[in-house]
Each structure stands twice: as C-alpha cells, then as structure tokens.
Amino acid sequence: MAISESPEILGSTATATATVMSTSHSDSDLNHFSLRRRPTATAVAGTRASDSDDSGNGEAVDDRDRGESANFTSNVGENANEIPSTSHITFTYRPSVPAHRRIKESPLSSDAIFKQSHAGLFNLCIVVLVAVNSRLIIENIMKYGLLIRAGFWFSSRSLRDWPLFMCCLSLPIFPLAAFVVEKLVQKNHISEPVVVLLHVIISTTAILYPVIVILRCDSAFLSGIALMLFACIVWLKLVSYAHTNHDMRALAKSAEKGSAVHSYDVSFKSLVYFMVAPTLCYQSSYPCTPAVRKSWVVRQFIKLIIFTGLMGFIIEQYINPIVQNSQHPFKGNLLYAIERVLKLSVPNLYVWLCMFYCFFHLWLNIVAELLRFGDREFYKDWWNAKTVEEYWRMWNMPVHKWMVRHIYFPCLRHGIPKRVAIVIVFLVSAAFHELCIAVPCHIFKLWAFIGIMFQVPLVLVTNYLQNKFRSSMVGNMIFWIIFCILGQPMCVLLYYHDLMNRKGKAD
After folding, report:
1. How far is 147 from 272, CA to CA, in rounded Å?
2. Can you give the pTM of this predicted structure?
3. What pLDDT does residue 363 have?
C-alpha cells in the first residue's frame, strides 16, 4: 500500500542504497527526490513536539498532510499520470519510513465528529428512508388497496360552491377602494381621521365578507380553506398598504418643514403589482431580476404537480384511514389516543413538509419568477431552529416581515413592553389560524387558537434551555417533538372528530 508522504525521514540504509543504485540509474531519476541526512535527536524531538501541538487542530494536520502529498506528487514526475519508476519506489516506499507520525482522532470520536463531513451518511439515510417507505407503501396497497377518493375534498355539492368562487372574484374590489381613498387624501379632499376610518371599514369588510359567505354555504372543506387563505392575504396586504401610505404621508409632511426629501406618490400600477407579488409588505418599488427563466418555471411547475399529488396520496391512503379509525383524543382511552397520535405523526409530518415545499419554495418562487420579483427569501433554515422563537422568525418570512413591520415595532414605538408586544403578535397569528381552519369546518372550538398561544410558554422554555445548555440542540428537539410529533396530529384528530360530530348531528 503506497504511503503518500514525502520521504523526509530516511535512514542511512536509503543513503547506501542510493550510492549503489547510482551506477545503474541516471542522475535524472534521482533528481526527482530530495534525499536528506538523518535528522538529529533534537530535530526529531522538535518535529514530534510540533506534531503533538498540531494534533489538537484537525484542520492544521489535514492541511499539512495535503501539502506533503502535493509535494510528493510534484516530486514523482511532472506528468500526473506518469507511473513511478523503480527508483521512485526504491527510495519512497521504504518499510523503514514511519507510517504513524501524528496524534489523530477517529472520525466518529466525540472530539472530531463535528469537524467531519457526513454527506455520505446523509445519503445513506435518504436511501434507507426511500427504501423503507417504499416497502410500507407497497405493503399498504397490497393490504388495503387504493383508498384514494375525492369525496372529502370535492363532493357532488362542490359544484354548488359557486358563491365562494364569486366571492373570490369580487375580493379585488377592496384594494381598488383603498386606492380611491389614498387618491382622495393625496388631493386633500378628506382628512387623516377619515382616511383611517375608511381603511378600517374596507379591511374589516374584506375579511368578514368571505366568512359570512362560507358560513351561509355548506361548502366543501378545501373550497373554504382556499377562500379564507385568499381573504387573509388580501386583508394583510390592505393593512400594509394603508399603514405604509400613512407613514409616507407623515414623512412627506415632515420633509416640507425640513431639508429632507421624501417622495409620496399613489400609483395604481404599484398597487396592482403589490397585490399579485409574493409579499405582504407594500412599497413603491421592489428589486427585480433582469429576465424570466421560462424553462426554470416549467421545471418548478412539474415539481409542484408531483409533490401536490404525493401530498394528496399520503392524505387519502394513510391519514384519512387513521383518523377514521380513531376516537376523540379527550373522550377515549388515553393510551389509545397516544398510539393514534404517534401513528398519525409520521404521515402528517410528510404532508406538512410537502406543503411547505410546494407553497413556500415552488409556488412562491414560480410567482416571483414570472413577476421578476427579486427578494425571494420566503423562508430561512427553520429546521435548524434551536428555540421556538427562532422557528417563528424563520419559517414564514412574508408573514414575519409583516408582523415585525406593522405590529411589533409600532407597539414598541408606542411604549408597549417587548414581551407584551410578542404576545400581541401571537394573538394576531392565533386569530388568523383559527379563522382559516374553524370557518371552513364550521366549528369554533378554538383548538388552533389555543395551539398557537401555547407557543408563548414554549418560547420561554426553549429560550431558557438554550441559555442553560449553550451549543446544544435541546431546543431543536423540543420543537420537533412538541410541534410536529404531538401538536399537529392532535389538532388534526380534534378537528376531524368535531367535524364528524357536526355532520352527524346535521344528518
């Protein structure tokens, strides 16, 4: 086995051999090597001391090894593909050359495990995950057959959901009304208090109108979810539009008194772009990319179709049978409820990850590419969050930026304490989560509201653990366990059984 280290420590045997071999080999063969006399005891001790010093630094040792390997490669021959000659092997691969010269840790030891790359193990985990889940899918289909049905999402009454469709088409009226209000105040036709009142009326109507339509129509669950999400997005954009223009007017008035220049203009084109752009924060202009990559959009759209189909397959083949064969978590046997929650946690986690990838990565990037929208930080590495607070700051960047810009910092500017402002932010988030789930289900049990507000004590607990155990992933494990393994499956079971009870009473 070749030793890829430079022959710096060669014994007197190598020198004698060099003398003998000089009669049969040309000087050009020997010019490839730099033979040196045996180091003195002091030099050897110094070398060992430096090696022991470098042993604590894995990067320094690796760099020196790479440097020696490079020197050896350059000494072997100018051509990298040249086969070493007999003289090369004679003087380099000597049995007396030390094979162990430094103190090194095993790659999986506690001191070196985080200094190594684990890309191969990650690939192994992916392969095992795909193999195991493929077997489970095949086993499930062989045992139960294909259970995919559309009744839960779209039924015969889905064709009667046209009021929801008409409501969705009429929602752009509210941004148009907000634009008219801004034009009137720009021309000084109405006062500032009237502007605030009109914007409050417009935004409130924009969210209450879809709620009333959904509650009056016994619509399909998916249709109600889609309409409520669209209505909440419109409401958030209307609030940002009104709040930003109000601040721009204040800056423009202050600029008239001073030397600063702040432009304030109400543009219909800017409003239209904002309403379709993948952002919730209004501004007069956005960073844009130079062109639209059409082939890239097609590839992302194909991925969107594939992952949406995978998400539907998991829901119909796994989640629906599990929840149908379960009991209400708060009314049945405790151990049975825990078993159902844990059994539901894995497919629910897959669906949640597919939903995140489809919406936050594929869909928002497709819309951004078509509109040449430049700022595409729709999420951060929330999977590495060490606290619940970090997760909420990184998981949904459009909503996070809206909350910080229009709720959190305005509360601080008005003298509200920081912790109280955080609670207000969670209250707003909990209210919208409850609206998006409870209204389409026609159930107001506040499960989603309670689940979001439960994040407040979790923020305090995970922050305390992170401060106590620094450089650890304790908070990250708590987040995955409580949020994904226990919290979401529990909410699914609660809403499902309440929905089935409501339908049973209606029938």
Report:
1. 43
2. 0.72
3. 94
